[in-house]
Design a protein that fits this description.
Length: 153
């Protein structure tokens, strides 16, 4: 991390960069909120009460804050870290978490929430099987079949 032109010591420069990264991630969270209705999420966190004009203004503020973060870091001679994790790897790791969550829907895990009837056990196994299949197909697509249409695999 270069700190040649700024007035901050190395620890202060690192703290400034980390804080700017944190602010940028929070701005990404705001973007996620704005884009949630377009994402067709099954479980939206927020109800949509922002008008298109307000959304454009919010996006403008986000862009201005990000430009300011970059200008501030450059003014202090602090380089921005380049991403070190490929997006495909981050998606694959997230799929592992999804697969674990799906596994925990099976009857042997659900017994911790009360007795599981035979019918409930069959339903849970069917639900887990369906979701495991979808996650597995998604994972195979990421692993090498990116050219294929995921709906046809």
């Amino acid at each position: 991390m270069a700190t040649g032109t700024g007035s901050l010591n190395e620890s202060q420069a690192r703290r400034l960069r980390v804080t700017c990264q944190h602010i940028d991630r929070l701005l990404s969270d705001i973007e996620d909120i704005l884009n949630e209705s377009a994402s067709k999420t099954a479980f939206p966190r927020c109800s949509s009460d922002i008008t298109p004009a307000q959304q454009r203004a919010i996006e403008d503020y986000i862009a201005r804050i990000r430009a300011s973060l970059i200008r501030i870091l450059e003014g202090q001679g602090i380089s921005r870290e380049q991403p070190s994790v490929p997006a495909s790897r981050a998606v694959a790791f997230t799929l592992v978490s999804i697969d674990i969550a799906v596994e925990e829907l099976k009857p042997k895990y659900m017994r911790g929430f009360g007795p599981v009837t035979v019918t409930a056990g069959r339903d849970l196994n069917k639900i887990a099987g369906e979701l495991h299949g979808l996650v597995s197909g998604f994972d195979r697509y990421l692993a090498g079949g990116r050219e294929r249409d995921p709906g046809n695999s």
